[in-house]
Design brief:
By secondary structure, this protein is an alpha/beta fold. It contains six helices and seven strands. The chain has one domain: Rossmann fold (3-Layer(aba) Sandwich), CATH 3.40.50.150. Strands 3-2-1-4-5-7-6 form a seven-stranded mixed sheet, with helices on both faces. It is globular and about 50 Å long.
């Protein structure tokens, strides 16, 4: 299976698919954090027509998440930023790829586009944390939990301020990546 993991610099999801023998590539404006040669450093929209079988997209949530929506309603940020982020999200949703998953936190796309097909939590996949993650799916089944654990703590939002806070908060949990590879890679 030829897999594109868009807007991923960490390589966590890409590597989960590669570990199962798939021809998986990550793509991001940033270089690959793990130094992988299977990373395309460019705008993901530039490679959407490259005959992918499956695409998993992680578009930036900065201007889409409900946690930041008040900045737009209060006029502290121009609405155009949210409109551009929503248009990018829709470019990914509408890509001509047979199977697509678009991941984001609870966000304005639930009203601007449609409600997500599924909301998952890290604790369903072996990580004792909470972080509601929405999945909009095209020709893919919902992810089945693989390892439900206790210790459901909301660590991600408690991450202290710093230059790498956004990187830490955006990284996909390895248990979720493994489930994606095992379940969607078998389709």
């Amino acid at each position: 299976m030829r897999v594109l993991v868009g807007c991923e610099f960490s390589g966590v999801v890409r590597q989960a698919f590669r570990d199962l023998g798939h021809d998986a590539w990550s793509c991001d404006l940033l270089p690959a954090e793990d130094g992988s040669p299977f990373h395309l450093q460019c705008d993901v929209r530039d490679v959407l027509r490259d005959r992918w079988t499956l695409a998993i997209f992680h578009p930036p949530c900065t201007h889409l998440s409900v946690s930041g929506a008040r900045w737009f309603t209060e006029g502290r940020k121009p609405r155009s930023l949210q409109d551009e982020a929503a248009a990018f999200f829709m470019d990914l949703v509408n890509a001509d790829i047979p199977r697509i998953a678009v991941e984001n936190p609870v966000c304005v796309m639930s009203t601007r586009y449609r409600k997500p097909d599924q909301i998952i939590q890290p604790w369903q996949f072996g990580h004792g944390e909470t972080k509601a993650t929405c999945l909009w799916l095209k020709n893919l089944p919902k992810l089945a939990p693989t390892n439900v654990v206790d210790g459901r703590e909301g660590k991600v939002w408690k991450e202290p301020p710093g230059p790498d806070r956004w990187k830490i908060r955006s990284k996909t949990y390895s248990g979720i990546a493994a489930a994606m590879a095992a379940q969607w890679g078998a389709n």
